[in-house]
Amino acid sequence: MTARWNSNLMNSNARRLPNAAKFKYGHLWSSTSKDPEQRQLCRNYKLGVHKFNKRPSHGVKHLTTSGVVRDSPHDIAAFLLNGKGLSLSQIGNFITDLRKPLSMAVLEEFMKQIDFTSLPFEQALRHFISKLRLPGEAQKIDKLMEAFAGRYCECNPGTISDTTDTIYVLAFSVIILQTDLHNPQIKLHRKMDLESFVQNNRGIDNGNDLDRSLLEAIYEGVKKEPIISGRDHLDFLESIDKSIVGKKLSLMDPWRMLMMSTQLQEIVNKNEKAPFDKHVRHVFLFNDLLLVTKQMSARGKATTKNAKERVIATCSFQYRQHFTVCSFKAESFATQHHPFGIRIVDSYDENSVLLELSAYNEDDRSAFLNELAEVTWVYRALENDRIGTLGVSDKMGQSTLSLHSFNSDSDAGRRHTHTLGRRFFKSNIFKSGHKREALSPSSSLFYTQGIGSADIVDSES
Questions:
Q1: Using CA atoms, how far apart are residues 377 and 401, in angstroms rounded to an integer?
Q2: What are phi and psi of 329, to 5 degrees?
Q3: Which of 63, 167, 268, 280 could form an S-S bond across to 68 if both were Cys, CB 3.0 to 4.6 Å?
Q4: Tell me, what's the pLDDT at 136?
Q5: Among 385, 365, 366, which residue's Cα sits nearest to residue 377?
Q6: DSSP 244-307
Q7: How wide is the angle at C-alpha 452 spanned by C-alphas 446 and 455, nearest 5°?
Q8: Is 413 helix (H, G, I), strand (E, B) or coil?
Q9: Are 285 and 363 in contact, with CB atoms under 8 Å apart?
Q10: Per residue in 200-244, pLDDT tens?
Q11: 3-state class (DSSP) for residue 341
């Protein structure tokens, strides 16, 4: 018997959000409100997002108990679809956790809130995958494809088939086609052609063939443009990491997130006012560290319309130094030549000045110091949680993961030995010769492009 989410378990102490704020989570991410209650709500939102990107269940628990999100599958699903800063990989992991009734209930609501009405099959599948990254376990992918098939048939009854099994198998067929066509490890002469794709899908509609024109359109569409997931903070983090040259630390951590970037001047001589374009430093403030760089020459044209992302995409930066949040303090100061100064000092020795910077105006300085204060609060809250967990684990004789070494379910390189759904293996796609490299242990089922990172290993191997 399938376990169901019990709505009676909802936390009655969770505060209710005003109707006007319902699901408008973007304002909580960038709010500069001075109202204490609103400010605390914003902090709880950011803390919940960071927890979610580390361990989804912990993040959801914090968000619901702190009143940021109402404790119901419908509202949690709406948050996953509309919340800012969430890891698409962790969204996929959370809604496919087969062991937890809440996750299954959220998956059901998640699908209900995506409208596929009148969308062609290929476009609907692209739209669905843009909302998450497919997990690394085949069992979870199977659950997502099953959910997609059910929702597509509900929105478009009888358009392709009256049975969800047909849509399910066709969806898997398209994902395999995506891998076959766009994985560079598969040689050109061995890639799936149109006739093979049509052959693989024969008889999948209760023994009948699907319309050939539909399959041709799908094949040409996938061949022309890969199916990819939407962009999240990790994509932007990768752009920053690639843009920084010189000796540096690796920025690629699943839960690290850029909170702010700004241009400041490094103070080399307190007794002189440096020219406007001298000693300019591009400062990146992440949720766990402050990175100071020097902007170098342009690298090319950018395709993004976002001004901040455009700078990152078109410029390279030379690494200067970095400081871990809470290892330093920032304070404002003013001199004749530097009226908007920012002094970075050691947290344990305030007489030890690590760096002095100057903003171009008071607004820039205030924005930087305020954002740093918020980042520090969230970081300390995460550290307190970690220390509390460490104490509990020590009492129970269990090991605890470090905040800095947390290994999420979405880490690349994990291999899984689950098998795909029975319906898929009974279909022509598996029976045909085109399981080949697309299903071999040495290749990824969903090749790069952000669609997922699942490795499928034959259960008999």
A1: 21
A2: -125, 150
A3: 63
A4: 80
A5: 385
A6: EESS------TT--EEEEEEEEE-S-TTS---TTSSEEEEEEESSEEEEEEEEEE-S------H
A7: 60
A8: coil
A9: no
A10: 999 999 899 999 999 999 999 999 999 988 888 888 888 889 889
A11: strand
